[in-house]
Amino acid sequence: MAQISGPRNGQPDGVRLADRDGGPGPQRQRSYEWQDPATSAAAAPTMAGIDFFRALLDGKLPIPPIAATLGFTMVLADPGRVVFEFTPAEFHYNPIGSVHGGVYAVMCDSACGCAVHSMLPKGAYYTSQDLSVKFLRPITGATGPLQCEGTVIHLGSRTALAQARLTDGQGKLYAHATSSCLVFRP
C-alpha cells in the first residue's frame, strides 16, 4: 500500500489511503457473488475453445470471477468472434468521474483473448503477449450499455493477433485495442 509522504487532504503523515473513511457524503455499497473458478479452469483444457465458451453461455460452467467483479457478460461466442456487454456504473469510475481506463482494458483484453481461445482445439491454450488500447471517448454512467466485440485477425501455429471494438448501441466507438497472443498447442 502506498504511503502518503506528507500531510495531504487533512491527513497526518504516514496515513495510508486505504485507512481513510472514504471522505464526506454517504457511502455506497455493492456486493456480488461468484462460483469457484477452478471448475471452469479444469474444464478448459478438456474442450475445444468454442465448446468451452458455449458451455459458459449455456450456464454449464461458472463465469469467471472478473466478470462478476466488473459486471460484464459474454453474450455471443462464435469461432474467432466473441461479444461482451456491460453497463457503466459509478463503481467503474476513476477519481475524475468517468470510467477508469482499466475497465476499458479489461473489456478489450477479455474480448481479444476469448476470440483467440474460441478458435483453439482441445488441449490448446494461449496467453496475452501485449495489449494496446486506444481510448477514444470518455465513458460515464450516462453512456448506457456498451458492447465489446473481439475478433481474430490472424491465428498461426504459435501466435495470434486479435482486435476489440468497444461501442455503444448506435455503433459509436469508445475504444479500440489489438492484442498479440502466444499459442500453446498439444
Describe the structure.
The protein is 21% helix and 30% strand. The protein contains four helices and six strands; from the N terminus they run αααββαββββ. By secondary structure, the protein is α+β, with helices and mostly antiparallel strands. It has one domain: Thiol Ester Dehydrase, Chain A (Roll), CATH 3.10.129.10.
Key features of this structure:
single chain, 186 residues, alpha+beta, Thiol Ester Dehydrase, Chain A, 6-stranded antiparallel sheet, disordered N terminus
- Examine the secondary-structure arrangement and name the CATH architecture: Roll
State which percent range the strand residues make up: 25-35%
- For the secondary structure, the number of strands is 6
The total of helices stands at: 4
CATH class: Alpha Beta
Shape: globular
